[in-house]
Amino acid sequence: MNEIPLSNEWLLRYSPVMELWLKEDGILLVDDDNRIRLTLEIGSDDVMQFKSIDQDGAYFAVDPVNKRITFELEEEEEESESRFWE
Predict the structure, then answer these.
(1) Residue 31 in 3-state DSSP?
(2) Is residue 59 within 8 Å of 71, Cβ to Cβ?
(3) Interatomic CA distance for residues 23 and 36, integer angstroms
(4) Exposure pattern of 4-23 as b/e (b: 16+ CB <10 Å)?
(5) pLDDT, tens digit, for every residue of 25-77?
(6) 84 or 2, which is more confident?
(7) Sheet strands side by side (includes 68-73)
(8) Which helix (H) or strand (E) is 78 found in, with range?
(9) At 27, is the secondary structure helix, strand, or coil?
């Protein structure tokens, strides 16, 4: 898992297959299909607001005690076809 500290003392953990895009007012997490999976806005006074969450095939959790946000994509199992040669 990749981790990045946020300006409000929270920690964002995310799958290594995702890209983190920094915006002026927040963060985007983008998967390898260029789908925006998480939009997090960090405003004045370090207030966070989730603008969008695409949880399809993902695990998302907010841990307020440890100040940790986790967004993890489920691993896709590769389908293997058995090939029989005669």
Answers:
(1) coil
(2) yes
(3) 13
(4) eebeeebebebbeebeeeee
(5) 889 999 989 999 999 998 777 688 899 999 899 999 999 999 999 999 887 54
(6) 2
(7) 2-5, 11-14, 68-73, 58-63
(8) none
(9) strand
- Residues 19, 2: Cα–Cα separation, whole Å: 10
Written as one string, the DSSP assignment of 20-48 is: EEEETTEEEEE-TT--EEEEEEE-GGG-E
Specify the DSSP class assigned to residue 64. Answer: T
- Do residues 4 and 11 touch, judged by C-beta distance below 8 A? yes
Long-range contacts of 42-47 (CB under 8 A, 24+ apart): 42/6, 42/7, 42/8, 46/7, 46/8, 46/9, 47/8
Q: Which two tokens stand for residue 52?
A: 């969008």
Phi, then psi, of 46 in degrees rounded to 5: 55, 35
8 within 8 A of 48, measured Cβ to Cβ: yes
Other C-beta atoms closer than 10 Å to the C-beta of 27 total 19
